[in-house]
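Progress report, Aim 2. The chain analyzed during this reporting quarter is listed below.
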Amino acid sequence: MLNAVHVVERVARGHSYLYLVESVRVGKSVRQRTIKSLGRKDVLAASGELDRLVASIARHAERSIILSDIDAGRIAAHRIGGPLLFGRLWDRLGIGEVLNNLLEGRQFGFAVERTVFVATLHRLFVSGSDRSCVDWMQSDAIDGAEDLALHHFYRAMAWLGGELGDRQAGALAPRCVKDVIEEQLFERRRDLFTDLSLVFMDTTSLCFYGEGGETLGRHGHSKRKNPALALFLNIPAMRCVIADVKSPMQE
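Predicted structure tokens for the chain:
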């Protein structure tokens, strides 16, 4: 088995020296055995000899060359798995088509559908703010996202949350564009023989100061890591699923 060989720096008489050493086992301990003294560090750096030595060794390490080129920006590496897989589901569910139909006639000046796709992909894999999404997407190869900027995400999210005028009587919140998108996606997946068989409740807990009633003000697991505050259950949204419709993975 080849002993580990590396370069170490040692200080003597106020100067730093570089040595090529190998680690060898002596009994139960590991010692460093000097193979060769490379010389004073400042002299090697000034003469360029140290850079030539490193370059000579690096020629025989392809992986190190590639990683060095990536760090230096000479090679661009992008992830492709997530965008390809999720993009296939996005297309087969018809989400892009629904968005583009609703966007017909709107003059946003940028690819809103691509912006929503990137934001959804970011939420699926990482989650975070729109600003973090802009930084994150630089590492993924996403078609149509090359020219997207932070203000595009702000405008796209504002469009999704834009309120519609047809608020139904008794509704807890006004209908938004995102509600229309969900309704149209719901209709695309149903047929004459399907039925609503399962409802998912999107719930969360909120902490508050003060006292609550019989069902409010109970103590439990706090997401804010403050068990001294009371909690109550909040149901901000409801999502419906048609169990009888085949998913894209089953087709």
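The chain has three domains: 5-72, 81-160, 194-241. The chain has a mean pLDDT of 79. These observations will guide the mutagenesis work planned for the next reporting period.
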